[in-house]
Amino acid sequence: MTASRAALLIDGSDTEFRELVHDMLAFAAAIQEVRNRLGGLIGLSGTQYTILMSIARLTGKVPELGVATLAEHLHLSGAFVTIEINKLVAAGLVSKAVNPSDRRRVLLSVTPEAEQRLAELTRVQAPANDTLFGPLSGSEFRAMRSIIAKLAGTGERTLKLIDYLAPDGKIETAREQVSPLV
């Protein structure tokens, strides 16, 4: 058994759980490649594209959009986001301004060049997203959105659990049992 929680088992079997994980891996690989290709169309890596899109979408919706808020939104480390933002600034796609509320922080915004590239990208982006999520009805999309939002934050806690159970990275010395809610 690869899972033990009753909610993950169907008739006492983990078969559907394993099939779900494999389907999710296939979808994650597809969505990652779509992101990379969309970024490539405007001269960016997939990660840079995601960061740029997020800044464009959050500007005006999130007061004082800075690195920490953006990193939290994307479930990435602040240090990594800072490195990628600096590349976008160097490319003339992101502007940083001193935050008047806290001069140690910066406010992020996209430049007119970035707005133009993102507007042009919609010619490919919209049909790509429509196709990627095409099988879903509106209610299925909303349900998936809710479920994925719940799962998005579990990765870091799960990695900490694995490190606790197998601190030396070897199965031979892994701890035997732990509460599944650790």
UniProtKB/TrEMBL annotation:
Instruction: Supply the source organism for this entry.
Output: Xanthobacter aminoxidans
Q: Which SUPFAM superfamilies match?
A: Winged helix' DNA-binding domain
Task: Give the top-rank taxon of the lineage listed in the UniProt record for this protein.
Answer: Bacteria
Q: Which protein is depicted? A: MarR family winged helix-turn-helix transcriptional regulator
Give the organism's phylogenetic lineage: Bacteria, Pseudomonadati, Pseudomonadota, Alphaproteobacteria, Hyphomicrobiales
Q: Coiled-coil intervals in this record?
A: none
Q: Name one Pfam family in it.
A: MarR_2
Q: Which parts of the sequence belong to the HTH marR-type domain? A: 17-153
